[in-house]
Amino acid sequence: MAITLFDLSGKAGRRFSPFGWRARMALAHKGLERDARVEPIRFSDKAKLAFSGQQLVPVLVDGDDVVSDSWAIACHLEAAYADRPSLFGGDAGRGMARLIAAWVDTQVHPRLAPLIVADVVDQIEPIDLDYFRSSRETRFGKRLEEIRAEREGRVDAFREVLAPARRVLGDQPYIGGAAPTFADYALFGAFMWARGVSPFRLLAGDDPVHGWRERLLDSFDGMPRREPGHPV
Amino acid sequence: MAITLFDLSGKAGRRFSPFGWRARMALAHKGLERDARVEPIRFSDKAKLAFSGQQLVPVLVDGDDVVSDSWAIACHLEAAYADRPSLFGGDAGRGMARLIAAWVDTQVHPRLAPLIVADVVDQIEPIDLDYFRSSRETRFGKRLEEIRAEREGRVDAFREVLAPARRVLGDQPYIGGAAPTFADYALFGAFMWARGVSPFRLLAGDDPVHGWRERLLDSFDGMPRREPGHPV
Lengths: 232, 232
Fold this sequence. Notes:
Two copies of one chain form a homodimer. By secondary structure, chain A is an alpha+beta fold. The first copy, chain A, is built from ten helices and four strands. Chain A has a four-stranded mixed β-sheet with strand order 2-1-3-4, with helices on one face. At the A-B interface, helix 3 and helix 7 of A face helix 3 and helix 7 of B.
């Protein structure tokens, strides 16, 4: 069955949506990433997603199924490819993975965005610049240059919000225990977003979260590490 | 096999340790709570835990096994009573439950403590009052009365940190999906701590977290709801 992933795209096809990365890692987990067709969507291309009934990436088209939202995509893949490695490790794991993804959405992303958002302008096509700047400056209530100037003072808040992951990843290699799950990919997506756009250093080298990120960069034969981005 | 749980105790045996509640709910999940002997430990009784090699409740003694720390207790029960309902739903769920418990420890408890800590003095024996006041006033850097006076201004930060649970519990009855897991008990322990000591209202009635707490208060034939405490 032909699979197409509509994913956010910057310059030269660079893919840095954290939610796109959740979907991409979920496809890789199921052994489907290499053969999936990618349809790059720039910020100004959102009309191309009208067929999905909404305007946000990622959207997965799997045969006759159109699935938007990275959580729904993970649930679709888990059900449609139940014979492949599980993304959740069962119903309880699915419930918990959803909370962990919501933790990343509501508590990690808001502390990461101000550290990297100003760098996105260097990675997107000229046609997207005005939209990106005005939408983000409205959201943050200040100029991108001001947000960038304040980021050194905000990195501690980002590192502090990772405390739950740090505590766990000192004792187990992945959030899912011995092997990664969708909960790992939910947090990893945040780091792939950063890696794709910003040279800003997020983690100390001796942080257990750093070691975990290294392991996931090497996963799936190093697929994430081969993605163009800033070495971190 | 005889099981004893050493749990923190206030006046009239009132049990309000959040970690004690994690252990107690885990015992109930395994069908072992009713028959477990409880050894109440006041703040000033910590010498009674010397046999465990440390000074913190809860401590579980299960036959020849002495297990301290609520996470280790859950893992012990899961392994020793593998034929009973699972606390984690598998290895992936175990890994994720540990992160969720660490989220409660590092991000929920610090925002809950200032809302309720001053009320603990009404629930503990006179012999524990000096230790409790001096240790908590040192930790917070102010008098208990000052902490209490500021709490109305802090309740929004507590509700905000629950955003991941709120988002998930609007769509599924428990963090573990259709049935509660140790991840649910980790967060529920925070609310049983509050319920045992403080009349302060933590949640709006239409908050999905409120509905989830009601379901867990009714669990195990209403065992948590029968525990003396403030109706919330």
